[in-house]
Amino acid sequence: MLKKTITGILYFLLSFQLNAQSILRELIDISTSNYPELEAKRLETEASRRQIQFERSGILPSLDGSYQMTYSTNNNITGMFFPGNILPISGPPVSENSMDFTYGSAASLLMNWSPFTFGKRDSKIQSAKFIHELAKHQESLSILEHQVRFTEAYLNYWASESMVRSAEKNKNRFETNLQLSKTLVDNGLRPGVDSAQFRSLYIRSKIEYLQAQKAAEAMMARVRELLGEDQQNISLDPSLGREISILVEEPEETHPLLQRSQTNTLIALSRKTELNRSLMPDLNLWGTAFARGSAILFEGGFNDPKDGLSFSRYNYGVGFQVAVPILQFARTSKLVQRQNSLISASEAYELQVERALERDRAIARVTLEKALESAQLAPEYVNAAEFSYQALQARYDAGLINLNELAQGQADLAKAENESIKVMAEMWKALLYYAAVSGSIDYFIQNLN
Asked: Taking the model in full, what pTM does it have?
């Protein structure tokens, strides 16, 4: 029974520790899912995917239906036509000018199909695919940038809350020393000015504590804004207070910024292909069926104007049309030359992005190495300052030193604690920076856990 109880307690503690270590990761996931800007990027990516489907649908024929009804003069045997998809039926002129009005009607089906486009359709589909890839890389880049912003804001919040706790400990030390000095003064072991000085220092520590709380609240507001969720509980991740020893495997993914630049080059090349293929012929297959109704008689005049509302003539036709842009070669060549310049410019931007990322990785690597070294020294710094303070406090209690020496020792301890918090925060920020320039927040999260 005892063994089962101990096992249950250990399991609970292990589960609690695992849950505690995943606080920041859970908040990053929530922020990625809920932030409005990222939702907009996801929708833009979906829109670009739909554009591919639209370009592919160009293989389908078009079929337009049309119907007309007119009430007009009858100076032509066919009456009047409105512009549209109905092919006009001409006829001989009437024998004399007439202002009599009659009805006319017409209906048609007009089909147009371009099954062969000599590569034009394929080039548009390919361009749409590259634009979709660009949208995906832009979405990935936006997600990475937001995750970095949110994590940095959370680290600032963690540091601010840690500063609050440090300020509270410092305030409590002053409060303890104030009570101690009163006792020593009452017993005649210390001058009365010591109590007054400790009270002044205690009040100042309370002010610093309130200022630290104000700074923490401001950081919390920033975190909540980037989280995109107002009801989510935001607590401190305990794993941020520990040292880290890198490392899991370094990321080898291509940075979304470089992927975006490479895709821009591919889009420029694809548009050049579109321009070249625009000089190819257009082949269209046509089919039509149309009917015409007119009250006008062949010899002129009419019996009943309403006779034109019913169809009296039917026609059908099929055929094909080939159109060659004979005089477009000169103009298109200028556009191709322009596109060549844009391709070269895109390749130059791509090279610049690659060089900038290499520089940033080198800086991030050195920054992380030095931050890790500093983080290893921070606990020793705090321990030494705390040991010194305790020794000074014992000497003050024994009447061997004055208040100023003890106050300086306490100030050194508070400074060491604050510097240690800053060093730990900078260490995590350095790791975050390294993950950001490597192209994936996962590297940071793996080391976090």
From this structure: 0.80
